[in-house]
């Protein structure tokens, strides 16, 4: 998947000494989940301090910021990069004052019924400053009755349909909340040197000093602070387990563990099964770096074809808004990848990519390999064909944008200039992930929740009079 | 009044070509009303664009900002300078999305029942991002029923107690609103080259290209846009006229006109009457620059004592957060004022100041004059003794802070080192201003509205069910 | 002189505790001499620290800067505002490493033979990073032989023709240097709480904590540090005394003293003599604020016509790069000055201005007064006609730009719309200043130094072989 | 080589339409050679425009910068990252005015006799603004006689001892200069769409649109502009060829070609020979990412042991100045690398690193692998032991800092916790690189140039009288 596929954010929460600093390093380890903006909020004697801005985590936070981010309780957020101008306004955590005291909130996911909820909130006379889900969730919480934040969160969750892994900061401490479907990861653990941490991925927990960790189960509110024992509240909402399979295919760090499965191991296994399902006669297995390396290793090990490095990725690419010159425009992906002639020249290669969404960069990459002398290019995709858009936060565009819709692999192979093209089967994907309750909607169209513009109608019924 | 007396903000509104640019120059002319932050919002095909930041008007706006501030309808705001860190968060206009479309709002004044309103809003389940009155007013408007913005504003005004001169921007155009008491100025006019403008002071209207202007009467909503005729709606709220006398004494620009009275002329008249009430035998009349120059001229002309320049003010003082050195700390006001030895040496002077609030800078100024050789210093204050705090936005502190509370002029004269000290009488103030319906609460304690922590109780009764 | 007349910079030097902070406040008091950039250099155990940037003194320096500006010895500089983009590159002090150790230099003035010196330096194989005189002076010093900095400075001064008041910082301490003609002011004094200070104007010395001060005589090098007694070295260069009369007319702060004369007193005296030379039958004397107030007071006192305030100046004007709208362009000076109708209406006024250079703003100001109702406008200029350009740093343009060249006062009066116009005579100017050795070149064409493109030819003769 | 080994900079030069934009993309491709600062200078009708600042290439350049960087001729520079504060002052290109017109210069390398040259320049009366080699080189060129820039450069090269790949911009066009030893790479080519480019590495040339390229031979001045044919001047200086072997081991991009050898292929070959020289009995070959991947692939292919991914590198690490918390400090490298338990658990691994300099990060990485369950860790280094410091720009510290000095591999293996440790032999290195004339000074102590503090004495003899 060499295109620009945007998911939605990483979150962390900490109760420990130097909480903001720990949150910083946690966000740093989640930088791959969002490069647009970053923010940290801390609780300090009843008040919440906040610093957030547009930029990478390492750009947003400087030493001086930590002097204002006092306190032993913190949450943090890093936001994904959308097209066009980044907006400081949409940076998270989102902080408001409520009748129950200050509330900061960071969100990873996508609320499927957001626009219906938004209309209802506005209709009740509320003003909204941003178009973000996180303001929506925070505003709803401000208006939800309940004796404790746990009660209020549990009550509000009944109206939230979609993917959400949340961290919240209030005077009661940190809350970590995972949607009943379990779309996005969220794990927590004890910091070896004392305290508690929560983060989108386990690799971030390790960086924050946790040797062990466990997942927050779907439909659960975890609450921790400096005084009380960790409290885990299960919210009874009927929902099938639907862990996003794309976290395994592409989003998560290879060193993270989710649903008991290490991401790297799953990806290697995807490659192994791909080798079984779609063998090729070739001299070398070449990954499209970086996300396809594990699958390529798996393919190589299973097929016995040596693993090789055939494409170099420009590591510092970051975000640049500079338009290429007219002369460069034709070169396309050349800025991102360079072919290694010495490896590719004269070789028959298996080119392994993790996925193809729009397919816009596939043809140029195949061409790069051919121009560098590859004799044959057998494209192998370590996930099934993407045939349906995602409503849970993965920006795949509409069906119209998906290259595999209405096209057989042979046709696509021709389009992108490959000698052959094969995808992993849906069964292969399932076997590689190896757990039940996976959302494969983008592959098989089974969305687990009713995806209908009107399905949220009346969801506010009984939400309480005049509360929002 | 040589101390730091903060009032609250300047506002502008424009319907004309290059509206943002005109708003910029209007704000520029209102810079004296607020140096902390500045902002402009424009309406562009149904959307509202906003740029605001901490800093002087000339710092916040650069050429490139105007390309994003498209549209022929704009409002602007400049905010006063408080102590401590400036916060971008509190910059105005405040912009929200509502069920009636986007709403931007800029506010000059102080809502006396703000904390009660805030509690009620929060209690209804709303979250608030800032501690500012303007968010409060905007949020209330978002939840107020009504067919048009004029209706909604008129309805909400029933719950707003205090000083407010507002500009609002919606898809219907610009609204300018003045509280029923008429505490703060707000005027409007036709731009000679076409279009309409509204501004806190008439001097800003002139800079924006209006040859003629008139005031927006207290308790009035003015509405204008590109299509419709200007619409003026009077809201029936029983309220005595209470124009802030400190606008005449200190806040407004001398070239502005308010309630039909030119500020400079009023100040000169304050000086004339002061000369009648409190003559002095002296060689020169010396103003404390800049705000007391007009009064000193009046004193000089009436008394026949020549006007002289005895103190130089550092014009570029701006805001500096650099702490003086230990050695400089003792010098006090020396950074702000320099004495002119050649003028002061051997002279008996009448030192005219517009007012004394806390009195902290008066003694150092008198000392400056004496050290420069002034033989006698007769302090004359062109307004009465300040004995009561202000609840309408003028930051005078509490009674405890006011030097005149519990002290006779003779005692104050001794404290500040003057040979004599006299204030203008309340009658003198009234005669100089020359209109009825002036708020002199800081002088005479008559607040025109019930100043009571609880007076706003139940003010939300009947505000509509579940609307906010 | 209501146009934009740019002079060149202010300088300070300090030996005292918290030297950088003292330098900051000194620069602050010299802000009127230059608003483009500011910088401070300090000596700290043999190294020189430097912070400089584009902006006002209060913008360039924040609290954190002072932690890096350690040491008890400092110099500072504030630079005048030229048209177009400000350049950080030209900010001063200029710092280089030399064979004699580090050298920082700040310069006020204009080296008349700069382009010849530049050509010679380049011709000797040197590279120059900027187009500024200060780099030139520093580079020449780096290549001048001598045992001490005093010796080297004295030697280099022989080749410098023009106006220069310099501060230098080396491992030997602070050096303050004034050109042999004494074109620009430079004074020094003992800081009451200990230490020494030097500054362009005495008002800055007072702000830096000096009760007494004296001037640095023309052609003198003053040297002070923490150890040694202050050392004053006279450089024997034959040069007539030529104190810039425009410092009296316009540049200096009214509370400064130069050549034993207080600037305010001189300006009042200019007004008195103007009243004697050019009386007018009028009701009010109105100054063009701020620089003409003293002259107007003098005119009023001598003529017996009351002093009045008829024009208000926008104090916050600062620098804005925003172009006015088409509608505003016609209004011209309206942004800078507002007329006070109440004062001007029906009045016959004497409008006092300090000078007229290009005359571009004079007509609009007269028009402002007339439009506000002034019945008669008698323009009185408190300095003689400007007929010759300045080569010593005052940006008066060429003869072609000067309104008085080739025009009699009557003609100019007509051009600017005044009922009458009179200038002070050259004799009046001389009497008011009251000292010998004044440069009046812009009035009388007597330049004191040979103003000739080629006059610097061979000035490098004997400068030492291969030294630069 | 997992430590922080800093080399010195990347350079580009372009003659083509939209030259600045092309230079930008060239620098972008050289970002790995320097992350501290970036700059581009263009020639525009005789003047040189310059923009440079601290930061990554993508941070320093925004769209608006290119409007000021007009012209069809450009050079660019990206600077390496040192510890501590980045300084805008040291950013390149360095631009000066000279007697021969403006000169901009960008430098990659290290002048070994810089301090002697500096002393001589200062001694001749010159002032220097920075401590950089590039100012030194530029200043020397400004003072070197010669009819053309080529002549002057050729003359100055006689005094420059050390590594330098330069780009220069003058009114005559772009000059690319390579030192006679050929320490650092520099190549050029024809841009397919027209024009010429030069760059530190061939991968950058490809990004700039060159299909073919060739190296600039050691001791050569290449000159190109819009008019004339490319001119190649060989400077006769007796110097052995000494291509830095560390460019092959670590610095250069794998997709670059140098001395006819592709970097990736050399690295793979280093791994192959390492497998031959130092076999190990193991289950997996694991690289320390990213620079050791090619060597690990080579080792795997030759040994038949499968290649695996066992360590994940945080790609976004960038530069952060945030100190880790006390709790995190103990975790050491955890922020940079994460172990993949699933790969490592129970495995006997060959851990391949490109080099060990100080060795500070080696022990933590071995520990990471062990803690993740690796049963045996056989460390294999794809280059020889580093026993001598580098004087040509590679920041290896002194002998004291080098872990291999005075220690046998067995001892080092114990120190870092590896079961075994083997280095590639010097012969292996030579065979892998496969060319003559390689500098292996850090391995074998043969420096090719006299490394002696005094060796530059008198090098200025005959440099011309009074020229510098």
**What is the terminal-to-terminal distance of chain A?**
42 Å
Q: Given this structure, which CATH class of the largest domain in chain A is correct?
A: Alpha Beta
Low-confidence stretches of chain A: 82-86, 453-468
How many helices of chain A? The count is 16
What does the average pLDDT of chain A come to?
88
Give a quick account of the main beta sheet of chain A: strands, pairing sense, barrel closure: 7 strands, antiparallel
Say what oligomer this is.
Answer: homotetramer
User: What percentage of amino acids of chain A are in beta strands?
Assistant: 15-25%
Query: What is the CATH architecture assignment of the largest domain in chain A?
Result: 4-Layer Sandwich
Number of domains of chain A: 2
The strand count of chain A comes to 23
Enter the CATH topology name of the largest domain in chain A. Glutamine Phosphoribosylpyrophosphate, subunit 1, domain 1
Biggest protein-protein interface? A-D, 71 and 71 residues
Rg of chain A is 23 Å
Write the SSE topology.
The structure is a homotetramer of 468-residue chains.
Chain A: E1 10-15, H1 19-29, E2 37-44, E3 47-54, H2 57-60, H3 65-68, E4 73-79, E5 94-98, E6 101-111, H4 114-123, H5 133-142, H6 149-157, E7 162-170, E8 173-178, E9 187-190, E10 196-199, H7 202-207, E11 214-215, E12 220-224, E13 231-234, E14 243-244, H8 245-251, E15 257-258, E16 261-262, H9 263-277, E17 284-287, H10 293-303, E18 311-313, H11 326-329, E19 337-339, H12 341-344, E20 348-353, H13 362-371, E21 376-381, H14 409-416, E22 420-423, H15 426-433, E23 438-439, H16 441-444
Parallel strand pairs in A: 14-23, 17-20, 20-21, 21-22
Antiparallel strand pairs in A: 1-4, 1-10, 2-3, 2-4, 5-6, 6-7, 7-8, 8-12, 9-10, 9-11, 12-13, 15-16, 18-19
């Amino acid at each position: 998947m060499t295109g620009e596929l945007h998911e939605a954010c990483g979150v962390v929460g900490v109760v420990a000494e130097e909480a903001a600093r720990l949150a910083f390093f946690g966000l740093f380890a989640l930088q791959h989940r969002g490069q647009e903006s970053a923010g940290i909020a801390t609780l300090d004697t009843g008040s919440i301090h906040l610093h957030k801005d547009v930029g990478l985590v390492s750009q947003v936070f400087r030493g001086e910021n930590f002097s204002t981010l006092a306190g032993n309780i913190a949450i943090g957020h890093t936001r994904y990069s959308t097209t066009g101008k980044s907006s400081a306004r949409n940076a998270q955590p989102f902080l408001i004052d409520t009748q129950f005291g200050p509330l900061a909130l960071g969100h990873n996911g996508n609320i499927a019924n957001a626009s219906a909820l938004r209309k209802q909130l506005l209709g009740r006379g509320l003003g909204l400053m941003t178009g973000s889900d996180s303001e929506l969730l925070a505003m709803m919480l401000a208006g939800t009755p309940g004796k404790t934040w746990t009660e209020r969160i549990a009550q509000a969750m009944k109206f939230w349909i979609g993917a959400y892994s949340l961290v919240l900061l209030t005077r009661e401490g940190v809350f970590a909340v995972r949607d009943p479907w379990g779309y996005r990861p969220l794990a927590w653990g004890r910091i070896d040197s004392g305290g508690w941490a929560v983060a989108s991925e386990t690799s971030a927990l390790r960086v924050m000093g946790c040797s062990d960790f466990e997942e927050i189960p779907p439909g659960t509110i975890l609450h921790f602070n400096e005084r009380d024992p960790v409290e885990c509240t299960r919210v009874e909402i009927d929902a099938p387990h639907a862990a996003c399979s794309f976290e395994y295919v592409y989003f998560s760090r290879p060193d993270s563990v989710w649903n008991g499965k290490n991401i790297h191991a799953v990806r290697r296994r995807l490659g192994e099964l791909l080798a079984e399902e779609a063998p090729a006669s070739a001299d070398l297995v070449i990954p499209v770096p970086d996300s396809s390396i594990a699958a390529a290793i798996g393919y190589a090990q299973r097929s016995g074809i040596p693993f090789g490095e055939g494409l170099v990725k420009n590591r510092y690419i970051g975000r640049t808004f500079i338009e290429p010159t007219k002369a460069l425009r034709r070169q396309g992906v050349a800025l991102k990848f360079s072919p290694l002639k010495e490896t590719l020249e004269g070789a028959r290669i298996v080119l392994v990519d993790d996925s193809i969404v729009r397919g816009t960069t596939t043809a140029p990459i195949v061409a790069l390999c051919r121009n560098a002398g590859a004799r044959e290019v057998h494209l192998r995709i370590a996930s099934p064909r993407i045939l349906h858009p995602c409503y849970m936060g993965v920006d795949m565009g509409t069906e119209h944008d998906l290259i595999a819709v209405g096209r057989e692999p042979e046709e696509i192979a021709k389009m992108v200039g490959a000698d052959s093209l094969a995808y992993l089967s849906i069964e292969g994907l399932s076997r590689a992930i190896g757990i039940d309750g996976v959302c494969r909607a983008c592959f098989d169209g089974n969305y687990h929740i009713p995806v209908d513009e009107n399905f949220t109608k009346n969801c506010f019924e009984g939400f309480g009079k005049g509360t929002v």
